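Lay summary. Proteins are chains of building blocks that fold into shapes, and those shapes determine what they do. In this project we predict the shape from the chain. Here is one chain we studied, written as its sequence of building blocks.
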Amino acid sequence: MSTSAMQQVHHVVICEGCDAVYQKAVLGRGQVARCPRCGTELERYTGRAQQRILPMVLAGLLMFAVANLFPIVAISLGGQYSEVTLAGAVQALSQEGMAEVALLVLATTLLFPLMQLLILLYLLVPLPRQRRPLGFAWLVRILQSLLPWGMVEVFLLGVLVAIIKLTSSAEVIIGPALGAFVALTVLLTVILSFQPRNFWHMAFAESTE
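And here is the predicted shape, written in a compact code that computers can read:
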């Protein structure tokens, strides 16, 4: 594709809802462009979001490591002391005959969020150097499909409810992983608000420079 053709592609946006093609608009802070035909969001103002996402992804990976390597809570009851980790919770569910639930927890709180963070890191690092990484299109599509499946916040809510119930019958000591899960939930909320389609705009912008 010639440079002029790529520049023309970069200045149009295609509606994901009805495939209508529009000229890209210059958006201001807080503005969102929607398709006048079907109402689907076309794009929104991101400012310098792409420069902020990479540090947040790195912070998210750090919080993810802390959340999974350290105990969430420690429970002391009747002279017995035990520490609860995410991996331990998944193993306990499996041993109690709830293998399907264990697999769901493993996928939605560990595998899918980790995949999202690693794909984002892989995509973000080369783009400022005007390089599109290998498998770019495929990974952007995977990232888009993973968006509804990360449920760290649901797991965190369940943990908080369980802690509140346990405090009436046992001594509960908060572990470092709980704080890491809170931070990870906040970071993922901000990170995943950066729509995967923005990678296409970034890639074409770098290609036309």
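What the prediction tells us: The chain has a mean pLDDT of 81.
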